[in-house]
Amino acid sequence: MTIQASRDAVIVEAIRTPIGRRNGQLKDWHPVDLLGHVLASLIERTRLDSSLIEDVIVGCVSQVGEQSLNVARNAALAAGFPESVPGTTVDRQCGSSQQAIHFAAQGVISGAYDIVIAGGVESMTRVPMGSSSQGPGAPFGPQMNARYDNKLVHQGISADLIAQKWELSRAELDAYSLESHRRAARATAEGYFTSQIVPVPVHQADGTTALFSKDEGIRADTSLEKLASLQPAFQTNGRITAGNSSQISDGASAVLIMERSVAERLGYTPRARFVAFSLAGDNPIYMLTAPIPATRKVLAKASLTLDEMDLVEINEAFASVVLAWQRETGASLDKVNVNGGAIAVGHPLGASGARLTTVLLHELERRQGRYGLQTICEGGGMANAMIIERLS
After folding, report:
1. Which residues are catalytic?
2. How many domains, the chain?
3. How far is CA 131 from CA 20, 65, 83, 159, 228, in A?
4. How confident is the model at residue 389 (pLDDT cuts 50, 70, 90)?
């Protein structure tokens, strides 16, 4: 039996659009064209011969309407890739593009690919959240409902249940959310996001075209008083509000992944390597708690500790998700979402996983850190987690 030499999956480039508010700057962009714009920009930046790409793996949650019929393949063609380049679209809810990255990197490590793009897209303006569950029938069958005594709930209520279980006060949730906006505003002002963002041309009311280049949802002028004035969003006496929840958004992201020796042979400097991956499932009623076991699993697989992580990106679906995770893991919030998160920047569902990777990579490089951990909660009570190591 021939034993294959070990293969490293590495990141060559990672980029994203600025994140647009619902009905904001990206509202007129068809999601296929928006992702196509990012894919074409990735090729332009790297000067890669696109015929060498062996697959395009894309995360997207609402795969209906403009995001139906395999948005990955459609966007690759919209980007001008050769017709020989295939694509596939995956759905692991909010972690869809992180799962796309896992699949791509694992494919490289296994020898199935040498060069692959992973990414994500979601236009929540044009394809509203929940669109894919419309139509005849319901997504939960009688047996699943019976197992959970018909208590399966909306994720916003799950976020409230988490706040109650971990005894997270409204004041704590709002304070965390304010800090997310402050960190994101500072990162924007200091230009930390500039190198990772691909500007997007948008039409203006006066008929001109301008380049949209900064995340639209960040509220630099918000305050604890403003956040405290918001009414509960999901339960009458709940603690979850629009202010301590992620924003409904539009955006796209993409990561170019190669086998390390192939990247070097083509003249690229590998920027980070994938160290370990994990998946976890948890109670679907609480729904958003699986980053806790996923974090423990990925650290164990890598034989590393949380203290050895220089940076952590955990998706801010709701402030309660991050704070419950922090309570259970003991992580220092000084190195968690250091440039803000989805509460400030936005959460275009299918694009968020690859956005987190893009932010994590660029910030590890800026700080000259070594290890970065990324994890994201997902509908149905799941989570992905991974660790990357900066190389350059």
Report:
1. 94, 347, 377
2. 1
3. 19, 9, 30, 21, 31
4. very high
